Amino acid sequence: MPLTPDKKWTTGAGASYLGMFFVAVVCLGGVGGAWLDQKFHTSPLLALLGVSLGMAGGIREMLKVLKENAAPPKNKIVAGAASNPPEVEQARGSASRDTADAAERDPSGPSSDPGA
What we know:
Layout: H1 5-40, H2 45-69, H3 86-105
Helix pairs in contact: 1-2
């Protein structure tokens, strides 16, 4: 299904958000770690730790956003879902009607009489 213009905009905005967020947290971690390295004379240990924590935070945010925006599988049938294809809904409705009609015709259940 082609993306509509508004979907293209939101997809682009989401992608740029993730990119900017990732760069920002990695840079902040690196700068913060470098500052702490100068303060405690531990160069480059805390800068590397800051960059690593920034990358972990960026990956965590990326996975969260991807999980929130993940599209459900197109061929999966979900009971009661409004997004099922019309032919599935129609088939489900006719099967329910057939079962209900059979119960109305013979409420006692199946009979052992072959002539019935």
